[in-house]
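Dear colleague,

Thank you for sharing your sequence with our group. We've completed the structure prediction you requested, and as agreed, I am returning the results in plain text so they can be pasted directly into your records. Please verify that the sequence below matches your submission; if there's any discrepancy, let me know and we will rerun it promptly.
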Amino acid sequence: MEKYRESLDKIVNSVDCKEARAFAEKIYTHCEQQLLKPNLTEGKKYYNLKTKDITLEALNKLKQCN
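Please find the predicted structure tokens below.
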């Protein structure tokens, strides 16, 4: 998950703010949709929860651009 965090941080710091926010929102929404699936394995639940948490951190850094 650290590689994902590093990759997302690079996007947050190098891509236009609005584009980075749209990208992160897309990932966050995808994770939420995955977590609604009833037959998700524990591994996939963990992966989607962690990805969602890391993406939320990035979205919080991007709050200033709407």
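Summary note from our side: The CA atoms of residues 21 and 63 lie 8 Å apart.

Kind regards,
the structure core
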